[in-house]
Design goal:
CATH superfamily of the largest domain: nicotinate phosphoribosyltransferase
Shape: globular
Strand order of the largest sheet: 13-12-1-5-3-19-20
Largest sheet: 7 strands, antiparallel
Number of domains: 2
Distance between the termini: 39 Å
Structural class: alpha/beta
Number of strands: 21
Strand content: 15-25%
Helix content: 25-40%
CATH topology of the largest domain: nicotinate phosphoribosyltransferase
Oligomer: single chain
Number of helices: 16
């Protein structure tokens, strides 16, 4: 029932018009990369699979829909006995993705393929958004650990839990969200809040009590009063008086406010001079990839970052614009391509039943271009492959000595799941491997190199012909 109402009204209409069983193909794709970045990351497939496996309507659902007085009894009976029967293909979680390519493809009775639109988009859009932002932040940290600290600022309960999952895929090492540790085995971390320090008569006493309770994992929050004149000196005193005599080594200090570059450099010297050069300095406080990058450029002595609201909400670019469009229907056993026309070139869809390939250089192993094709096409990479910009067709490039990898894998066949989701650890590792295979120029934060996404000659010709025919019929002015 988590669906847009028009999906139900259309599905009722399909059934009443006798076309509910007509086979249709829908694509999910996206048009723009968040933060004007060079690539996005695909996440959320495991939750989409769970949804499709358990898709059903209860008696209460049917009674609610009946009360709307818009649906036929035949349709309500269809929903009551609903069984998912579609084929689904998808890229794998953690895969870098680019605008215009089909990242989820659904083929099946149009009434079913239409009903799942909202949940396909909701599930993939959210986690892909957070995974993409997380990866930007983790790349800015340049090998230092990043912890997801955003639960209290997430925009719902599920957004906190699944946001932590997506952040882990994107590169975060841990989360503050306890339930995400229980459910997804993402390491949960946390020390103290300012309230702990305020609860005791002095900062020293607060640190001492904490160290006595957690001697094996002691990280102290040092900015409640004054980092340099109070927090760090009291931390050093507790390290010497409580932890070292018992044979424990302190883990770290956390700074949550102030000029993090200046304070971390001063704190590092104070800790080093006191013999605690191994103690880590953790920074938090409204961080994002740009702030982290600038802090490190300024020589900040920071070892770890806790990132909250700017990560979990992708605050700087909070919408992942995935869409779900009809691409083809089946008539007499043949695919009939469908296209959506728009005066905005980027909103003109790519028609027909499609897949796509990623070309990797055999010399460097780097991804060099993506190639969207008809579903049964296989690119011949034994000879040079010419690709060109689908909009600016005069921009051409010849690829040689490449290998082609088909990016869509089967997920459901006739409603039966045929895909086994990898462990979250494996998804995270795969994501890191695939991002590492992108050009460095694609990974720039500002003005990244535009990665090539091309259409095969066959697909390009189908699109060109459909646009020409549509212009002739409507007298329109759609341009390529």
């Amino acid at each position: 029932m988590l669906t847009d109402f028009y999906e139900l009204t259309m599905s009722n209409g399909y059934l009443e018009q006798g076309v509910g069983d007509k086979i249709a193909v829908f694509d999910m794709f996206f048009r723009t990369i968040p933060d004007d970045g060079g690539f996005a990351l695909f996440a959320g497939l495991e939750q989409l699979i769970d949804y499709l496996k358990n898709l059903s309507f209860t008696e209460n659902d049917i009674e609610y829909l009946r009360s709307k007085r818009q649906f036929s009894e035949r349709f309500l009976d269809y929903l009551l006995h609903f069984r998912f029967e579609c084929d689904v293909w998808s890229v794998e979680e953690g895969t870098p993705i680019f605008p215009g390519e089909p990242i989820v493809v659904v083929r099946g009775p149009i009434i079913q393929a239409q009903l799942i639109e909202t949940m396909v988009l909701l599930t993939i859009n959210h986690q892909s958004l957070v995974a993409t932002k997380s990866n930007r932040i983790c790349r800015a940290a340049a090998g230092r650990s990043v912890f997801e600290f955003g639960s209290r600022r997430a925009q719902s309960y599920d957004a906190a839990m699944l946001g932590a999952r997506a952040a882990y895929i994107g590169g975060c090492d841990a989360t503050a969200c306890t339930i995400s540790d229980r459910e997804y085995k993402i390491p949960a971390v946390g020390t103290m809040a300012h309230s702990w320090v305020q609860m005791f008569d002095s900062e020293y006493e607060a640190f001492k009590k904490y160290a006595e309770v957690y001697p094996e994992n002691c990280t102290l929050l040092v900015d409640t009063y004054n980092v340099l004149t109070s927090g760090i000196p009291n931390a050093i005193k507790v390290f010497n008086e409580v932890l070292l005599p018992k044979g424990y080594k302190p883990k770290g200090v956390r700074i949550d406010s102030g000029d993090l570059a200046y304070l971390s450099k001063k704190a590092r010297k104070m800790l080093d001079d006191a013999g605690f050069d191994y103690v880590k300095i953790v920074a938090s406080n409204s961080l994002d990839e740009i702030i982290i990058r600038d802090l490190l450029l300024q020589g900040a002595q920071l070892d770890m970052f806790g990132v909250g609201e700017n990560l979990i909400t992708s605050k700087s670019s909070p919408v992942f614009g995935g869409v779900y469009k009809l691409a083809a229907i089946v008539e007499n056993g043949e695919y009939v391509p469908k296209i959506k026309i728009s005066e905005s070139i980027e909103k003109i869809t790519n028609p027909d039943f499609k897949t796509f390939y990623r070309f990797y250089s055999k010399e460097t192993g780097e991804a060099v271009a993506d190639y969207v094709t008809l579903f049964d096409e296989v690119p011949d990479v034994s000879k040079p492959v010419e690709i060109y910009d689908p909009v600016a067709t005069w921009k051409r490039k010849t690829l040689e000595n490449v290998e082609a990898r088909r990016m869509l894998v089967p997920i459901f066949e006739k409603g039966r799941c045929v895909y086994e989701s990898p462990s979250l650890e494996r998804i995270k590792a795969y994501c890191a491997e695939q991002v590492d295979r992108l050009w460095d120029e694609v990974k720039r934060f500002e003005h990244p190199h535009r990665y090539y996404v091309d259409l095969s000659d066959k697909l390009w010709e189908i699109k060109r012909r459909m646009l020409s025919e549509m212009n002739r019929v409507t007298g329109g002015s759609a341009h390529m």
